Amino acid sequence: MGIETFIEKYNSEFKNAIEHVEITDHSGNMLNYHVGIELSVNLLLEIQTKNHRMYIVGNGGSAAIASHAAIDFLKNGNIPATTFNDASLLTCMANDYGYENVFVKPIEMLAREGDLVICISSSGNSANIIKAANTAREKNCFVITLSGFEPENTLKALGDINFYVPSFSYGFLEIIHQYILHSILDAKMYCHDAKDVFYKNQNL
Length: 204
Prior knowledge:
Layout lengths: L2 H17 L2 E4 L4 E2 L1 H18 L3 E4 L3 H15 L5 E3 L3 H11 L6 H7 L5 E5 L6 H12 L3 E6 L13 E4 L5 H23 L12
Parallel strand pairs: 3-4, 3-5, 5-6, 6-7
Antiparallel strand pairs: 1-2, 1-7
């Protein structure tokens, strides 16, 4: 296959994945994409109003997405957001409690009822992310999940709002997960904070 044909296929597969993102609630009911975004924005507004916090967890590329998103939510959205990606913290938790609990322990220690935990896993079956989601629910936190690969992955059933990307490509999943998080933040900024997310950086 030549590069031109590959790019055509690549673009087509990406378009199909982003156009067929599935959103469900905790009961498994299907939601329209805009409804999923709106419900997520409402959670952000509740966090602001009630002085709660947001925690975002992921492994590898998803950890990078978590870090990027936390900075954006904090700086641009005025949402208290953080990750647990500090190397000392991760290695301490892994060494003392096992890697499957690297996010469980910080959530147990820091999260409060009404906080929001966003769990990102391309496969939807990473043990530490699943345990993080379950721990967050046990603490009565709100949970948003982002997953991919198999449509019946474990993580997809654990969130109050679940975004599933129908793809087996890490690249597609990571880009679209980032897109979803930006969509949530930008919708909040545009619709509630009167910030023009489309042209605010344009030099006039």
